[in-house]
């Protein structure tokens, strides 16, 4: 099991209606266990469609999707697949079912038939892992967007998933909520070894991933480490994508003849690079 | 102000009545309603009143909560009383004011009907005041589940009620937001006659409905992603279990039935 990729997509095509254009066009992708993989792309690039194919909400028109070796077209495995690859959606309001946080986390467990006695410890652990323990008695509509998304994540964690798919789950949040959710998911990836597919259009978020896949017109346009991807500023621009601000600054400096590294992603990288180029500049 | 909207009239607490099994409370409320209709004469309202007073004091509900539940009923109550008083006929005249005659039977009838209304409302308020809406839904689902044999969608009904309870505050918030956005652009929701105001609601209702449908679609997909597949094979976080407390409640109700019904058979 260790060597087989955790999520595997083979020659996957998908169209919404029989005559519609392909939303996904022969995509192949394999994500190893424990990887934090960001999927980037502008609107209509097929990234959300890919997400919904990854846990059997949509079924492939052609090609196939395997989650831990299970084919999503296998009817008998579909609930195992959805339990294994949990999904967090974009709108934090539209995925919580119960009127109390604690009961909402229990929803998935009730669905997969976990015995009543086993539920409380699993719910408590899930709430603790997402830092929502103090809110367990609250009504969902009284939480902030970031907190709602963390409840949604807790609801999935309680089902003991192996992978998390986040379909633009930070798009509707404020910067604080975005940070909360990203940090929560990063910690789960690091500490629990959960495979993460992080679909987003925020470059700063993708920059923190281990791997970045860029989608365009239903195909994979680029695939590599964040440094590899973001150093190709012109290619990204052609795909109507922006680059992180510090990378853009480095690119502009380079165009003006400054001998600066191309692989800058964060402010810290920039500080380090500026210190290297001009040791006296930052030591006032 | 819309943020802390409370649904229904649940008054949180931890009294013996609060802790009764919701199924028991629903059944007892129905039994109580039937009991009130079985009362043969005014005198028999005394034990019923005592029973209600006992239930209210056990539930530790503040008296003003009970009175508040009667408040919307006051006009109906007055009409009931007055109609029965003036239009009832009988054999013993109590008072004559010109053409209007008040008969003793009319007075008794008016009192019986008014008390009946008060007791019905108070009795059912105890249920809604001491039971959280979700618990109530749970109880209804469990009570209705034998009807699954005749294809009654007990689980689906309960799930719908839970989702409604979850989304009512969200939709109210959204309506408020749309209203403010429209007001900012010059919409007027407050002036004009009833028709004009109803028309002004159209630009509010259309986006609200569209968004409600979108939410429903999103939620359905999220529920499916969380392995929801109907009531079949589903376990529950909250198990309902009858306890001795419920037995005592049922016995007390049986005693009330004995008090009300036995005299009929004896005399």
Report on this structure:
The complex is a heterodimer of chains A (284) and B (267). Chain A is an alpha/beta fold. Chain A has 2 domains: 7-236, P-loop containing nucleotide triphosphate hydrolases (Rossmann fold); 244-284, no CATH class. Helices cover 37% and strands 20% of the residues of chain A. Chain A is built from 11 helices and 10 strands. Chain A has helices spanning 47-54, 78-84, 101-111, 119-129, 145-157, 175-192, 203-207, 226-230, 233-238, 245-255, 267-277; strands at 7-14, 24-31, 36-40, 62-67, 70-71, 85-88, 163-167, 195-200, 211-216, 219-224. Chain A has a 6-stranded mixed β-sheet with strand order 6-7-8-3-9-10, with helices on both faces. A 4-stranded antiparallel β-sheet of chain A has the order 2-1-4-5, covered by helices on one side. In chain A, helix 4 (119-129) packs across helix 5. Chain A is globular. Chain B contains 10 helices and 2 strands, in the order H-H-H-H-E-E-H-H-H-H-H-H. In chain B, strands 1-2 form a two-stranded antiparallel sheet. Helices cover 67% and strands 3% of the residues of chain B. Chain B folds into 2 domains: 22-131 and 240-266, no CATH class; 154-225, no CATH class. Chain B is flat, with a radius of gyration of 24 Å. Chain B is mostly helical.
What characteristics describe this protein?
heterodimer; A: 284 residues; alpha/beta; Rossmann fold; 2 domains; 4-stranded antiparallel sheet; 11 helices; B: 267 residues; 2 strands; 67% helix; disordered N terminus
Condensed summary:
The complex is a heterodimer of chains A (284) and B (267). Chain A is of the alpha/beta class and 284 residues long.
């Amino acid at each position: 099991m260790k060597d087989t990729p955790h999520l595997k997509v083979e020659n996957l095509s998908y169209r919404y209606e029989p005559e519609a254009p392909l939303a996904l066009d022969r995509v192949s992708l394999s994500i190893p266990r424990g990887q934090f993989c960001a999927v980037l792309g502008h609107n209509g690039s097929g990234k959300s469609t890919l997400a919904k194919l990854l846990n059997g909400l949509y079924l492939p028109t052609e090609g196939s999707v395997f989650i831990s070796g299970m084919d999503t077209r296998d009817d008998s495995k579909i609930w195992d697949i959805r339990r294994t690859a949990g999904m967090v959606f974009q709108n934090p309001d539209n995925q919580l079912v119960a009127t109390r946080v604690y009961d909402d986390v229990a929803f998935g467990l009730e669905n997969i038939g976990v015995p009543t006695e086993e539920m409380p410890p699993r719910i408590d652990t899930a709430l603790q892992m997402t830092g929502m323990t103090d809110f367990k008695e609250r009504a969902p509509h009284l939480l902030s967007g970031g907190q709602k998304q963390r409840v949604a994540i807790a609801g999935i964690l309680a089902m003991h998933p192996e992978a998390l798919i986040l379909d633009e789950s930070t798009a509707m949040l404020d910067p604080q909520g975005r940070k909360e959710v990203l940090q929560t998911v990063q910690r789960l990836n690091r500490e629990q070894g959960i495979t993460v597919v992080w679909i987003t259009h925020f470059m700063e978020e993708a920059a923190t991933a281990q791997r970045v896949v860029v989608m365009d017109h239903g195909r994979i346009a680029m695939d590599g480490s964040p440094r590899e991807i973001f150093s190709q500023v012109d290619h990204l621009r052609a795909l109507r994508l922006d680059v992180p601000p510090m990378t853009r600054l480095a690119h502009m400096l380079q165009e003006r003849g400054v001998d600066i590294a191309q692989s800058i992603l964060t402010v810290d990288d920039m500080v380090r690079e500026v210190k290297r180029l001009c040791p006296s500049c930052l030591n006032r | 102000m819309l943020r802390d909207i409370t649904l229904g009239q649940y008054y949180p607490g931890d009294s013996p009545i609060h802790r009764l099994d919701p199924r028991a409370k629903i059944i007892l409320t129905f039994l109580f309603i039937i009991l009130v209709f079985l009362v043969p004469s005014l005198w028999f309202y005394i034990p019923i009143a005592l029973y209600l007073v006992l239930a209210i004091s056990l539930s530790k509900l503040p008296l003003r909560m009970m009175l508040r539940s009667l408040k919307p009923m006051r006009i109906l109550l007055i009409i009931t009383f007055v109609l029965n008083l003036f239009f009832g006929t009988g054999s013993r005249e109590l008072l004559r004011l010109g053409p209007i005659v008040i008969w003793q039977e009319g007075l008794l009838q008016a009192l019986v009907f008014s008390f009946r209304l008060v007791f019905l409302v108070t009795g059912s308020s105890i249920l809604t005041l001491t039971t959280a809406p979700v618990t109530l839904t749970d109880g209804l689902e469990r009570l209705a589940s034998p009807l699954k044999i005749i294809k009654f969608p007990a689980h689906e009904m309960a799930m719908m009620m839970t989702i409604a309870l979850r989304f009512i505050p969200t939709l109210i918030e959204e309506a408020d937001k749309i209203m403010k956005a429209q007001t900012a652009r010059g919409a007027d929701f407050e002036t004009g006659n009833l028709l004009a105001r109803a028309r002004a609601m159209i630009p509010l209702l259309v986006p609200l409905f569209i968004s409600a449908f979108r939410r429903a679609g999103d939620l359905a997909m999220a529920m499916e992603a969380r392995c929801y597949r109907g009531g079949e094979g589903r376990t529950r976080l909250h198990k309902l279990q009858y306890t001795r407390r419920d037995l005592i409640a049922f016995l007390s109700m049986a005693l009330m039935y004995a008090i009300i019904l036995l005299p009929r058979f004896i005399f």
